Amino acid sequence: MDLSKSINSAHKSFTQWKKVPFADRQKLLVKLADVLEKNKEKYAEIITQEMHKPISQSLAEIEKSAGMIKFYAKAENVLQPEKIKTEFDISEVHHDALGIILGVMPWNFPFWQVLRFAVPAILAGNVILLKHASICFGSGDEIENAFEEAGFPKFIFQNLRIGHNEIKSVLENPLMRGVSLTGSEKAGSEVAALAGKNIKKSILELGGSDAFIVLEDSDFEKAATEAPWAKLQNTGQICNAAKRFIVHEKVEKDFVPRFIQEYNAYQPADPMKSETKLSKMARPDLADELESQYKKALRNGAEVVLALERISESEFRPGIILVKEGNPILQEELFGPLAILMIGKNDEEILKLANDIPFGLGNSVWTKDKKRAQFFVDKLESGTVSINKVTSSDVRLPFGGAKSSGYGVELSLQAIKEFTQIKTVVGNI
Q1: N or C: which end of the chain has fewer CB within 10 A?
Q2: pLDDT at position 406, please?
């Protein structure tokens, strides 16, 4: 692939696209949402074929993506100059599009992750080059085709069929102005270092090991019913999935048996069947890694609550392990159908368990007490705190992480400004 040609084409397109009025860009987004809805069955099948997500969840991904695009199609123009009161005749803050933005995107949500980054950036006047996961090149091509079918100018969005090693030459090109990466901590640190060296803005949405905190005054039956979905959606391959279930000791005997019962309902099956809730993992090597982490946890004192049973090169019967403070597995992300159970004596101990990890993406707290909820809201080190609900992204609200889970914001009106240059205009006329 001629990367220089792709970058030059994108730059030429940007010089015109940045001049298009905000409202006119939004009209094209309406058409893009229509394209996704019209082709949702086709796109869902591609997702499932590429990374094995259950077909019902693939359809939900396309529908959620279309809903997100509709949100931005009706969004307030937050890029209008902001007037600041000073002694000068003119005191304004402007937001100018940066230019070409590279998206380094993962396989777990092949459409959603790409579009939630690309749509607000394009609405702000930028153009996009996509480096998708190698197993999802088909999804990347279809997204590019969808932009063209919606009537966007050519080269506003391009899918680059390139490998990780080629990211360096892309970001080193002086016409590139930023990069957004969703992926592992290792990939994020490498790309961020490269972006920093070349003075390009970066946004990182990395891993997580989110806590699902169940206190004794909660509706623990509801929590137990929703807890398996919080972990096992997309076969547990979600950055902000609940990965550690931290339960108050006073509700352990009530919550845990119900949790296990509901958890057992998720068993691997044919991903093309609409009733399937759990499928195989995206790649055999990812299954190898999860199995290795499982054994590592057990070697370091973890106890089996529900055995993780490998039944094929990429399939597991989902497992649960009881883990105590100090187990090195707590410093890692378990990306697959393996959950961690922890027991805490009081709120302070539970908080310590929740925070004592490198990550900070999104925690969930289950309690009927507003003061206790506020205690955790104030002290949990994470980008999101959900109260009596499963943690999930919402287009209306900013989504981002703390600590090693990354920096920068996706979704909400705030995301429109992420890849813009603030320009101060001040003086007298």
Answers
A1: C
A2: 97
